[in-house]
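re: the backbone from monday

yeah here it is again, tokenized this time
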């Protein structure tokens, strides 16, 4: 306790000595950020004497630099009384005329000043220069709605671009554009538009650049060609006219291959005469676009029909319904195909088919069908081809073997019967590899006895197809499930209370396993969900438990394994004692009990972690766990918390035990000695003031006017000395406890 007071005395003396020499910069006033700062800005700060002595003139030196440049020193020319402040200005002015940010650093120095944490102030001063707004370049004429380019701001100095703006009404109203770059990419401008730039001057006035104008030329209209026609071969002559165009023709063009290639005609008029065409021809006009691209008119077609003979069809056939697919084709020279027709009633009626090619596909026909093709005559009569006949034979209906079945291997018997057979039986077939391969069975009857079957087998019947391919009946599956074998569980075992045990099953052969347990010596059994496994980790054992396994395989009856018993060994009871509170540097004896032997963890702050009552000296609050073991090897544990209080921590105790054991005999506030002038007040439940003290020293014993107060709950208000912190709470008064 003596060493603690000596330490506080040294700290207090050192603090007083340090403060006696302390001069500090309390604040700064100038220079501050602005527009167009000069090379003669005044540096003005507030110097403070943070001590109890007079500091004579010329003993305090004030210094400053700008941007880490040359140093300016100037002494304080007047005495500075205790606690006084001096509004100090340097006679040498600061040069802040360069645009941008400047760092101003000011500090004070005085011999004997040991506290340098408050000697320096540093701040940033922004000097913004007047904006030179420049202008947007340059004016341009573009094609309306089909244009792109770059506008640039030139001649611009200082400030920051905040946005571009556009005006479509000659500058009366402006619309902001979210762009802070010195260039702007325009595209698809549809009307005459001006553009300028808004510039933020920071501390200087904002400005607007000069503008540039984009002038738009309306898209020309190419016009429409009239006079298109459909004509017969050798009679194709006439005239085409271009109307509705707003620009002059550059040339006419024609194409005889449906627009694949075009041939230029030297003609700049709006009329074109064509004579004696022998093939269909497209015409178009290219008109002048001005600043826009030249563009084409619409296309006019002069369609010329040739005269063709009757087409001949090939591809008539006789087919089975399973392969009634193929192609009927036209041969010879013929005109454009208008469509095809089919008839399923031997030509009595015809159905249109939307197909304009010279070949007609037919797919999976189900009846005999006739086909013919119709070609376009244009100005000449349409032409009908000859007729092709596709004869279709119906497919026999596959017979059925009836329902499949599943049987256990120890009870296999039954007969398969073929029903609905319309053609002769060729043979039966069987498969034991899920249909990957089939084996013939010498049987041409409509039934089969499978009673001798020993494994899962698929059956089908091969039928004669007559004119169609041979075919099969449906497939029947006779599923054979093996008799399950549950296997053998490992032997009985003993485990400590609350622990788990892994059980092992060997020799099991089954589709599914179900583990079961019984807590009443096999009287009732509970199935464990999700336990289809050969190795099972049990739940924590808290009593004697029996385990067994059920094995299932398809439709066969289940098989049960042997029973194993897990015997529970009791856990020893450990007692680590009661939680305790001590101060830093104090020790306490732990008291553990239970089991045959024990160990404390952690052991670093214990005198001996292997004894039941070690001495604990923790530096911080620590929870100790006492582990004990019994003769059967089972382990139990209990914990105790040793709370360590900081000596200088301001901690209000909430109990008084006035029993003269020198522990909590007075109301104790830990650390109150470090906070002089701590005020306390004690009230009863009715609000009556029982005790107060303006500089509490941990001396109140729970009395009022010299008499001890009754046991019970009281209320306190504490104002922590030297601060504005107030604490409120309850205090319990006990006696002889």
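seq for it, each position gets an aa:
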């Amino acid at each position: 306790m003596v060493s603690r007071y000596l330490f506080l005395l040294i700290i207090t003396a050192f603090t007083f000595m340090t403060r006696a020499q302390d001069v500090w910069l309390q604040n700064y006033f100038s220079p501050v950020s602005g527009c167009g700062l000069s090379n003669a800005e005044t540096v003005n700060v507030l110097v403070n004497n943070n001590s109890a002595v007079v500091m004579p003139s010329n003993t305090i030196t004030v210094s400053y630099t700008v941007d880490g440049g040359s140093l300016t020193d100037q002494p304080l020319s007047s005495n500075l009384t205790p606690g006084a402040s001096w509004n100090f200005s340097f006679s040498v002015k600061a040069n802040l005329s360069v645009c941008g940010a400047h760092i101003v650093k000011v500090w004070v120095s005085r011999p004997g000043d040991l506290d340098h944490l408050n000697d320096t102030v540093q701040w940033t001063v922004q000097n913004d220069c007047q904006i030179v707004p420049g202008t947007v370049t340059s004016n341009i004429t573009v094609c309306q709605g089909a244009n792109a380019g770059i506008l640039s701001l030139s001649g611009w100095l200082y400030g920051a671009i905040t946005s571009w703006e556009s005006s479509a009404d000659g500058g009366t109203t402006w619309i902001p554009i979210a762009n802070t770059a010195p260039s702007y990419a325009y595209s698809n401008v549809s009307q005459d538009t001006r553009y300028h730039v808004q510039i933020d001057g920071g501390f200087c006035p904002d400005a607007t650049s000069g503008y540039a104008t984009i002038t738009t030329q309306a898209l020309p209209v190419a016009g429409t060609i009239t006079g298109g026609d459909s004509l017969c071969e050798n009679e194709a002559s006439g005239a085409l006219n271009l109307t509705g165009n707003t620009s002059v023709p550059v040339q006419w063009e024609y194409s005889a291959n449906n627009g694949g290639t075009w041939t230029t005609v030297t003609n700049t008029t709006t009329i074109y005469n064509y004579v004696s065409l022998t093939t269909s021809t497209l015409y178009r006009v290219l008109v002048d676009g001005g600043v826009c691209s030249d563009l084409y008119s619409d296309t006019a077609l002069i369609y010329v029909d040739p005269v063709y003979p009757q087409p001949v069809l090939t591809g008539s056939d006789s087919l089975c319904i399973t392969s009634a697919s193929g192609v009927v084709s036209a041969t010879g020279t013929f005109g454009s195909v208008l469509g095809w027709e089919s008839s399923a009633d031997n030509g009595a009626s015809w159905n249109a088919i939307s197909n304009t090619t010279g070949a007609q596909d037919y797919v999976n026909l189900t009846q005999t069908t006739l086909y013919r093709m119709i070609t376009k005559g244009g100005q000449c009569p349409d032409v009908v081809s000859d007729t092709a006949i596709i004869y279709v034979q119906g497919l026999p209906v596959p017979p059925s073997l009836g329902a499949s079945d599943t049987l256990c291997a120890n009870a296999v018997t039954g007969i398969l019967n073929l029903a609905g057979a319309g053609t002769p039986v060729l043979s039966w077939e069987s498969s034991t590899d899920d249909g990957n391969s089939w084996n013939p069975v010498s049987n041409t009857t409509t039934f089969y006895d499978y009673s001798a079957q020993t494994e899962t087998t698929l059956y089908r019947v091969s039928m004669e197809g007559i004119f169609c391919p041979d075919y099969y009946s449906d497939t029947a599956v006779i599923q054979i499930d093996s008799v399950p074998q549950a296997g053998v569980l490992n032997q009985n075992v003993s485990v400590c209370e609350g622990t788990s045990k892994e059980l092992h099953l060997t020799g099991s052969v089954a589709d599914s396993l179900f583990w079961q347990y019984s807590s009443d010596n096999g009287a009732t059994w509970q199935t464990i969900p999700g336990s289809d496994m050969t190795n099972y980790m049990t739940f924590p054992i808290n009593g004697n438990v029996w385990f067994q396994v059920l094995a299932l395989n398809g439709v066969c009856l289940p098989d049960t394994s042997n029973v194993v018993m897990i015997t529970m060994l009791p856990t020893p009871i450990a007692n680590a004692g009661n939680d305790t509170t001590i101060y830093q540097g104090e020790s306490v004896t732990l008291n553990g009990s239970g089991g045959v032997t024990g160990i404390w963890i952690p052991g670093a702050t214990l005198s001996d972690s292997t004894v039941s009552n070690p001495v604990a000296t923790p530096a911080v609050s620590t929870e100790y766990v006492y582990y004990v073991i019994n003769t059967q090897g089972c382990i139990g544990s209990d914990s105790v918390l040793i709370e360590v209080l900081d000596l200088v921590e301001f901690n209000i105790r909430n109990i008084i035990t006035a029993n003269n054991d020198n522990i909590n005999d007075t109301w104790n506030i830990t650390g109150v000695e470090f906070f002089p002038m701590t005020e306390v007040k004690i009230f009863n439940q009715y609000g009556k003031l029982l005790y107060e003290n303006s500089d509490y020293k941990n001396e109140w014993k729970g009395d009022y006017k010299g008499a001890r107060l009754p046991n019970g709950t009281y209320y306190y208000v504490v104002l922590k000395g030297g601060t504005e912190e107030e604490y409120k709470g309850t205090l319990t008064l006990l006696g002889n406890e």
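The longest strand covers residues 635-645. The two ends are 27 Å apart (CA to CA).
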